[in-house]
Automatic annotation (TrEMBL):
One of its GO terms (molecular function) is hydrolase activity, hydrolyzing O-glycosyl compounds. Residues 8-157 form the Trehalase-like N-terminal domain. It comes from Plebeiibacterium sediminum. This is Glycoside hydrolase family 15 protein. GO terms for biological process: carbohydrate metabolic process. Keywords: Hydrolase. Pfam families: Glyco_hydro_15, TREH_N. It comes from the Bacteria. InterPro entries: 6-hairpin_glycosidase_sf, 6hp_glycosidase-like_sf, GH15-like, Trehalase-like_N. Residues 218-582 form the GH15-like domain.
Length: 601
């Protein structure tokens, strides 16, 4: 596996990864964080996949159907040409609700000749802990676990079932389909019904893309990133996933392998803020409802992360039978970081709430619920801002007074005052302003290094950290401020390497980081642009666009030397940063078409 050359398909309940060779190597059903059905991504032999093996293959090409989340893989063979269109159904019903079943559909279309291929169907339910047994029935092939937790899976197709279970050669003479479902279907499945679902799903995504704001530059990249972020939102609760996968290593052969199929308050809040900026307010409203539901009482403590259904306990354990991606163990399920204290979450959430209040009107009960959350978050900041924490990078060792955490505590109180002003609740503002000033004074006295001429990673430290670049983005400091300019240059000098960025260059509890954190490279582009280094910023941004995979998707990390994608995939962090950077470099200038749309709407 040389690179994460995968496409994502999904329907906001679950999602799958399809390799550039047309193999479904990652799928969890019926929802994102369920045990895997296919996990070849994590173990070539024990993970399971639904793959296609063409006869006499000459070449393969893969692309999304424009402005949708339908993925087309085209196989050119000596005997003929065929394509496979992969999608998970999502469309509006006649009642107006979103239909999004736990189904993956593959449509096989003959383009020319008489192409020949084999289908290899190898589901491995429940993370492949025990064998999955297949049985052929009149309408479907059923897979079931015979040991351990009971689970089952249904495959429908108009291919001969024996050809699928025995991987016989198939000659494609007309359009065919394979449908894999967590549920037994009530209606007869045939090519006509499947193609109708495909067209309805295509229309859904085209309509969604049409609502995405278009800017003067980089619209294809913005749209693909926005579509990807939408796929990482969970329709049922409004939660937003950090990534689709678990245990893809930050560095090959090492142990920084984490489960990202959960909702981090920080990541989710950043995602909805960006999607709001490109005119997708429903995702933001659903996410804020998720926040209201996980903080039902006034003394409820806020965790840094939750399960996508609001679970508060995310116990971490290993799957030792899996060899891991590129033999990088361990493979983990759950994430023990849920117990950590990270004080930056308060400011990032409050920033998203403020944006919602400033952009949109809301119902009275929703506004009152959010106002209660705002006042509770202020109380949390009052109790916690002086305390050390684990920071944005979730250091599992010693807690520190991280500069970024302090700045975001300042942001929380700044945004709380702005929200109070919008809601005409001025009585709170004087007290909150005093707290804001106190936090700023603490930062200026303790986070600045005269020696480095930079704000540092933590109080009393001379180490630098890329997260400090966000001080300007969150309004703590102006891009023209000499302290900020000096900080940008110092961080660039110390942390930039081979055109990419370290998060930090000091040892943590796992040693020295060896890969570049993709979002940090976007942060540097933004920072350089804001201090007036516009040409250097644009040059770096254009290079970063080349480092995506063949479909414009990004993982969490990049190898400094080879630019190979590493870490969990696709990563919400990376895509939200791409959108934000593209908008900043475009200086927020919308396209002519967008101006016309605004004028006539």
């Amino acid at each position: 596996m040389e690179n994460l050359n995968y496409g994502i398909i999904g329907n906001c309940k679950s999602a799958a990864l399809v390799s550039e060779k047309g193999s479904i190597d990652w799928l969890c059903l019926p929802k994102f964080d369920a045990p895997s059905v296919f996990a070849k991504l994590l173990d070539e032999n024990k993970g399971g996949a639904l793959s296609i093996e063409p006869k006499n293959l000459l070449s393969i090409g893969q692309e999304y159907i424009d402005r949708t989340n339908l993925l087309c893989t085209r196989f050119i063979c000596e005997e003929g040409v065929f394509e496979v269109i992969d999608f998970m159904p999502r469309y509006k019903t006649t009642q107006g609700s979103a239909y999004a079943p736990p189904d993956v559909i593959r449509v096989f279309n003959r383009i020319s000749g008489a192409p020949v291929f084999k289908v290899k169907y190898q589901p491995k339910l429940e993370y492949g802990l025990h064998p999955t047994e297949l049985s052929v029935h009149s309408k479907f092939i059923k897979g079931v676990t015979k040991k351990g937790a009971y689970d089952s899976l249904y495959l429908y197709s108009d291919f001969d079932f024996k050809d699928i279970t025995e991987s016989n050669e198939i000659t494609l003479t007309s359009s065919k389909f394979i449908l894999v479902s967590y549920n037994q279907k009530l209606l007869k499945q045939d090519i006509h019904r499947v193609k109708l679902q495909m067209e309805r799903t295509k229309v859904y995504w085209l309509n969604w893309s049409e609502r995405t704001t278009t800017f003067s530059k980089y619209n294809d990249e913005i749209n693909r990133s926005a579509l990807t972020l939408k796929l990482l939102s969970y329709q049922k609760t409004g939660a937003v996933l950090a990534a689709l996968t678990t245990s893809l290593p930050e560095t090959i052969g090492e142990v920084r392998n984490w489960d990202y199929r959960y909702c981090w308050i920080r990541d989710g809040s950043m995602v909805v803020k960006i999607l709001n900026q490109v005119n997708h307010k429903t995702v933001a409203k659903n996410y804020l409802n998720f926040i209201i539901n996980i903080l039902p009482e006034k003394d409820e403590k806020m965790q840094i992360m939750y399960g996508i259904s609001g679970e508060k306990k995310l116990s971490e354990y290993e799957l030792p039978h899996f060899s891991g991606y590129a033999d990088s163990k361990p493979v983990r399920v759950g994430n023990a970081a849920y117990k950590q204290k990270q004080n930056d979450i308060y400011g990032i959430l409050m920033d998203a709430i403020y944006q919602h209040f400033s952009l949109y009107s809301a119902t009275l009960d929703f506004s009152e619920d959010l106002w209660t959350v705002v006042r509770n978050v202020v109380k949390m900041v009052e109790r916690n801002w002086k305390k050390p924490d684990k920071g944005i990078w979730e250091i599992r060792g010693e807690s520190k007074h991280f500069t970024f955490s302090k700045v975001l505590c300042w942001v929380a109180i700044d945004r709380a005052q702005k929200i109070a002003a919008l809601l005409e609740q001025e009585s709170y503002m004087k007290k909150w302003k005093q707290l804001e000033d106190k936090i700023r004074e603490d930062i200026e006295n303790n986070a600045w290094s005269e020696e480095k001429q930079s704000y540092t990673q933590a109080y009393g430290s001379e180490d630098l950290d890329a997260s400090v670049l966000l001080m300007e983005s969150y309004g703590y400091i102006d891009g023209k401020n000499e302290r900020y300019r000096s900080t940008v240059y110092a961080i660039q000098k110390e942390l930039e390497h081979e055109g990419l960025m370290y998060r930090y260059a000091n040892h943590d509890d796992f040693g020295l980081p060896k890969s570049a954190f993709t979002i940090c490279a976007f942060w540097l582009v933004n920072a350089l642009y804001k201090i007036g280094e516009k040409e250097a910023a644009i040059e770096r941004f254009e290079k970063l666009l080349v480092y995506s995979n063949h479909l414009g998707l990004y993982s969490e990390d990049l190898d400094f030397e080879t630019k190979r994608q590493l870490g969990n995939f696709p990563q919400a962090y990376s895509h939200l940063a791409l959108i934000e950077t593209a908008i900043n470099i475009s200086e927020g200038e919308v396209s002519k078409e967008e101006k016309i749309k605004s004028a006539i709407s």
